[in-house]
């Protein structure tokens, strides 16, 4: 919480408070007696003139009449103020909070962003299903979609629901079940939509992804190519989704060991991303990394190094310094230097990868083991 001073704090249930400081501090002190817990006394400042957040004094109706209780509504949001230790042992803290007002710009920006990310174009139960899916509440989302299937009055209404059920199974790694749902959706779309409709492209893409995850690369390529044809016909030449279509085909060719074709499609995807994304966007870094991997496997180490370094520059700008993706980038650069015979630089980059994995991954994680082995191997070559 000390790292979010000045930020926002939401209580996601009804919040029981007291106007009697002694009662509140008694609860905080009880938590502080447990060495695994920290007691916090929240001191709240409320100006009801500028906020419509529901709260009420409930002493007259509370079971505990002596607690001088004030009850706040669910999801009440406060701004975090000063934070200070109360006991000198870092077991008991006072945190000052102020109730946000209706014109708080940060809260408004956050609310607008959440609204944008929670499927504003969907309605009712369908939107709830998408939200549960995004929260990885797969079983609950499936229940919602199965109810929607029963309520559907025609095949056109069922197609997007089958599609969502396929996505649920896909994300859970249940690929045969995902294919069953996707194919039901596809059968309806092929009967009811024009041959260049983007929804057809989306279902071709998703079926291709399932086959890719199952290791059936020729079948994956077939569906990804169908998606690409529709994207080329229906989207602007610099649209991000068109770039994603090129990227997916490049990924299949890479997995099949056809590096020249993989490079061609990765470069087309990169060209679109360079037009449509900020220069420090992580997706742009991922494309640089993939092209670097192609050149690495083709034995062109200078070009591989160039693209790996572009990836690293973006990651250093856009990710926390201990992010596992940064460790991967340092490790890739280390591999190139090792194959170029520059063992000193290889060892240096491998060590940076180890430092990050030590902070961000458990010691039994396979990536941690790989980074350690790389360090030990190059150390012997110095």
From TrEMBL:
The UniProt record lists the keyword Repeat: yes
Name of the protein: Tetratricopeptide repeat protein
Highest taxon of source: Eukaryota
Keywords in alphabetical order: Repeat, TPR repeat
Residue ranges of TPR repeats: 159-192, 201-234, 243-276, 285-318, 327-360
InterPro entries in the cross-refs: TPR-like_helical_dom_sf, TPR_rpt
Keyword NADP: no
Pfam family, one: TPR_12
């Amino acid at each position: 919480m000390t790292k979010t001073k000045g930020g926002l704090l939401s209580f996601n249930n009804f919040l029981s408070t007291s106007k009697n400081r002694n009662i509140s501090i008694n609860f905080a002190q009880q938590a502080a007696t447990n060495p695994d817990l920290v007691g916090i006394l929240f001191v709240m400042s409320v100006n009801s003139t500028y906020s419509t957040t529901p709260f009420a004094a409930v002493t007259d109706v509370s079971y505990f009449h002596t607690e001088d209780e004030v009850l706040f509504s669910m999801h009440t949001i406060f701004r975090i103020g000063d934070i200070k230790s109360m006991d000198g042992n870092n077991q008991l803290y006072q945190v000052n909070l102020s109730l946000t007002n209706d014109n708080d710009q940060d809260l408004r920006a956050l609310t607008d962003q959440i609204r944008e990310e929670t499927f504003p174009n969907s309605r009712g139960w369908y939107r709830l299903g998408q939200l549960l899916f995004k929260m990885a509440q797969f079983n609950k989302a499936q229940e919602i979609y199965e109810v929607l299937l029963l309520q559907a009055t025609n095949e056109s209404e069922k197609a997007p629901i089958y599609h969502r059920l396929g996505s649920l199974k896909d994300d859970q790694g249940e690929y045969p079940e995902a294919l069953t749902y996707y194919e039901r959706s596809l059968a309806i779309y092929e009967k009811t939509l024009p041959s260049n409709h983007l929804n057809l492209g989306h279902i071709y893409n998703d079926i291709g992804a399932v086959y890719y995850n199952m290791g059936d690369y020729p079948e994956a390529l077939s569906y990804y190519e169908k998606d690409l044809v529709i994207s080329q016909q229906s989207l602007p030449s610099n649209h991000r989704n068109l770039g994603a279509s090129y990227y997916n085909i490049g990924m299949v060719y890479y997995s099949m060991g056809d590096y020249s074709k993989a490079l061609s499609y990765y470069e087309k995807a990169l060209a679109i991303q360079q037009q449509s994304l900020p220069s420090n966007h992580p997706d742009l870094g991922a494309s640089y990394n993939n092209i670097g991997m192609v050149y690495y496997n083709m034995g062109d180490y200078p070009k591989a190094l160039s693209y790996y370094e572009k990836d690293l520059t973006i990651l250093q700008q856009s990710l926390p310094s201990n992010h596992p993706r940064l460790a991967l980038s340092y490790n890739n650069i280390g591999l190139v230097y090792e194959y170029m015979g520059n063992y000193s630089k290889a060892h240096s980059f491998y060590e940076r990868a180890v430092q990050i994995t030590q902070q961000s991954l458990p010691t039994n994680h396979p990536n941690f083991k790989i980074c350690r082995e790389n360090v030990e191997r190059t150390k012997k070559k110095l």
